[in-house]
Design brief:
The N and C termini lie far apart (39 Å). The longest helix has 20 residues. This protein is α+β, with helices and mostly antiparallel strands. α1 runs antiparallel to α4, α3 crosses α4 and α6 runs antiparallel to α7. The chain binds (3R)-3-hydroxy-3-methyl-5-(phosphonooxy)pentanoic acid (PMV). (3R)-3-hydroxy-3-methyl-5-(phosphonooxy)pentanoic acid binds next to α5.
């Protein structure tokens, strides 16, 4: 089954009733147990389950209106039709809109660029939600997550706020590969971002995943690692046990980077500042401050900690951006 057929299957039974405007917000998310490797590259079907926490008010707000021709405005900037960004957004929209109906899409990411946070997850989740609002499809969270996954894998975990669990699914058409909300609330949990390097990445996550799956000898052990880490992370979320959550999330991120390092050619995202930051995190922990690190496909480090330690951590890392996962978006 291809992307078009999958999208059509998800939208089966829906009527398109375009309004004057569709609008939605979706939060960014950080994986606690990572999605690394696809079993189907076209449908963004993962090799393993993953789970994440959303970032409260950090995310994307997207609005959609009818127009004479397609327009894309990102963070106030007109995006030219021949750019990769434009094509990626509209090839996703083409899966879902009737009769190539021209649309003006405007998206603002409340994520400061300086936080060094990837915005594709919140971007595709907000776009899916805004299309659902614009066309009045009335889709439930499961179907919205299935659609968002076709835009960007990790976007399926940004449809609902809070903790999210994306099950890999078994089916070839991916209809059982979507994220659901984990029923848990942990008001004191905080996520910090450290922008260590704002340069362009040597290799995008799509290509890095493909290379890892195809060439990394360590990748064979990745599904087993995920099974173990995911179990511990889900347990820790229910128990609100920061030590167990942080240890397992940190180990999982390090193991993901180990699979990349053993790819051929090797994928190395780390910078000297990355190593220095990880060492400071370890040193802080040794002094009794409960703070843990996680990383994605880039050199920047994200921190997991609790509100009561935020002052101490902010003193150690003055450039830290902090997200409260339970803070609602501005409006
Ligand atoms: O959804 P993508 O293609 O941006 O991949 C995201 C991959 C990681 O951020 C490294 C891990 C994750 O689970 O978010």
């Amino acid at each position: 089954m291809n992307k078009h057929e999958c999208a059509a299957q998800v939208l089966q039974g829906c009527t398109h009733r375009p309004g004057r405007e569709g609008r939605a917000f979706a939060p960014a998310n950080i994986a606690l147990c990572k999605y690394w490797g696809k079993r189907d590259t076209e449908l963004n079907l993962p090799v393993t389950d993953s789970c994440s926490i959303s970032l409260g008010a950090f995310g994307a707000t997207t609005s959609i209106q009818p127009a004479a021709s397609d327009f894309l405005i990102l963070n106030g900037k007109d995006i030219a039709t021949n750019t990769q960004e434009f094509q990626r957004v509209f090839s996703f929209v083409d899966l879902l809109r009737p009769d190539s109906m021209p649309l003006r899409i405007e998206s603002d990411s409340g994520i400061p660029l300086a936080a060094g946070l990837a915005s594709s997850a919140s971007g595709f989740a907000a776009l899916t939600l805004a299309l659902n609002d614009f066309f009045a499809w009335g889709l439930d969270a499961r179907r919205l997550s299935l659609l968002a996954r076709l835009g960007s894998g990790s976007a399926c975990r940004s449809i609902e706020p809070g903790f999210s669990h994306w099950r890999r699914g078994e089916r070839d058409d991916g209809m059982d590969s979507f994220a659901t909300r984990i029923d848990s609330h942990w008001p004191d949990l905080r996520i910090g971002f450290l922008l260590l390097d704002a340069g362009t990445k040597p290799i995008g996550s799509r290509e890095a995943m493909r290379r890892t799956v195809e060439t990394s000898t360590l990748y064979q052990t990745w599904p087993k690692q995920v099974d173990q880490d995911l179990r511990r992370i889900l347990e820790a979320i229910q128990a609100r046990d920061l030590e167990q959550l942080g240890q397992s999330a940190e180990e999982n991120a390090m193991a993901m980077h180990a699979t990349m390092l053993s790819a051929r050619p090797s994928v190395l995202y780390w910078k000297p500042e990355t190593v220095a930051t990880l060492q400071r995190v370890h040193a802080l922990r040794a002094e009794g401050c409960p703070v843990y690190a996680t990383m994605d496909a880039g050199p920047n480090v994200k921190l997991l900690f609790e509100e009561r330690d935020s002052e101490e951590i902010k003193t150690m890392f003055p450039a830290l951006f902090m997200a409260n996962p339970w803070e609602p978006p501005a409006n």
